[in-house]
Design goal:
Blueprint: H1 15-37, E1 39-41, E2 47-49, E3 66-67, E4 77-79, H2 84-93, E5 101-109, E6 122-131, H3 139-163, E7 176-179, H4 180-186, H5 192-203, E8 205-209, E9 230-242, E10 247-257, H6 260-269, H7 279-285, E11 292-298, H8 299-307, H9 322-330
Parallel strand pairs: 1-5, 7-8
Antiparallel strand pairs: 2-4, 3-4, 5-6, 6-11, 8-9, 9-10, 10-11
Helix pairs in contact: 1-3, 1-8
């Protein structure tokens, strides 16, 4: 457990006012986001069959919560880590057209998450996915989509300021772009997370691109990414410098999804070529699902950012160690 307690923290909103603000942010953001990216809301599962290969494997070491169902025999069922692969199949199943997309309120459990100011075992995010052409699998498409998302987040800053002027956290006016290799070249002696803090503090808001593959200097990855949904050359994270905690905060992970060639290459690097026989992976290999771009935007993280909160538990009801609860309460940090 790693907990940051800022000095002299004073919440600008009461617990009940915070709940009102959470509802406002979530409802307003998803409407603006839907319009900006041409998305339609769909219902999505909390669990999937393990044998489908649809669950997100994250870094490959986190174990999903699993169980069996009375009427499903002994087939393992898994609580989703995210819906990265499910969404791509849904676009095909539901008959979405080129440049149309979907979004959903995704809830998940990541029981192996290390709990801190930003991380909870309970995940709530807007998962989204949009159809593009093969020719649009480019850095330009990725950057253009990132700018659209940043535009919506900036719009929300103004909306929150209008409704809750005493509490809004002010954001930078521009998002910048940098690759993980550029960060390693600039700060070779720093860890990847230290590099993210340094660049976020310098630029205010940045999209860190190309996450998952090995870096040239160290031969190590900047951070983990599953090998079978994002193309590691066409993905990234949106991060902001967050003054209340004096470090960066990640709001979104997203990317252009793998095609057959990039998936085979990445699975080989990851030593996970056995997944190629799974139904989802066969669909990608046989080009039976559309080319897409997609990602997730943390709902609680966004509320935390816009309201200047210092712990995700202030905007999300979850479970926390008693020691963390006690320390937060003593510091005026009220966990829901």
């Amino acid at each position: 457990m790693h907990l940051i307690i800022p000095k002299s923290y004073e919440p600008k909103l009461t617990v009940r006012e915070t709940q009102t603000a959470i509802r406002y942010i979530r409802e307003t953001f998803q409407d603006e986001f839907r319009k900006q990216l041409n998305l339609s809301r769909v219902s999505t599962p909390m669990f999937v069959e393990k044998k489908t290969g649809l669950n997100d494997n994250l870094n490959g070491v986190e174990k999903p919560v699993s169980f069996t169902m009375k009427d499903m025999g002994d087939e393992p069922i898994e609580i989703v880590h995210s819906l990265a692969k499910w969404k791509r199949v849904a676009l095909k199943r539901y008959g979405f057209k080129l440049h149309e997309g979907l979004y959903t309120n995704m809830n998940a459990i990541r029981k192996d998450e290390a709990l801190d100011n930003f991380h909870s075992a309970y995940v709530d995010q807007w998962d989204w996915e949009k159809i593009i052409t093969k020719d649009e699998r480019t850095v330009d498409t990725l950057k253009a989509t990132v700018r659209q998302i940043f535009k919506v987040i900036k719009h929300m800053e103004h909306e929150v300021w209008y409704k809750f002027p005493q509490s809004v956290y002010h954001l930078p006016d521009e998002i910048h772009f940098v690759t993980t290799q550029e960060l390693e070249d600039r700060w070779p002696d720093k860890t990847p997370m230290e590099r993210e803090d340094l660049i976020a503090k310098e630029l205010g808001c940045v999209f860190i691109m190309q996450i998952g593959g090995a870096l040239k200097r160290s031969g190590k990855r900047h951070d983990g990414r599953a090998p079978d949904y994002d193309d590691w050359k066409l993905n990234g994270d949106i991060i902001f410098w967050y003054e209340p905690l004096n470090q960066k905060i990640e709001i979104s992970s997203m990317g252009i999804r793998v095609d057959a060639e990039s998936m085979k290459k990445q699975l080989k690097i990851a030593g996970a070529e056995d997944r190629l026989k799974l139904p989802y992976h066969q669909m990608v290999l046989n080009e039976e699902v559309p080319y897409t771009i997609g990602g997730g935007i943390g709902q609680s993280r966004l509320c935390m950012l816009l309201l200047g909160k210092v712990h995700v538990g202030e905007v999300q009801a979850s479970l926390w160690p008693q020691d963390m609860i006690d320390k937060c309460e003593a510091a005026g940090i009220h966990l829901l």
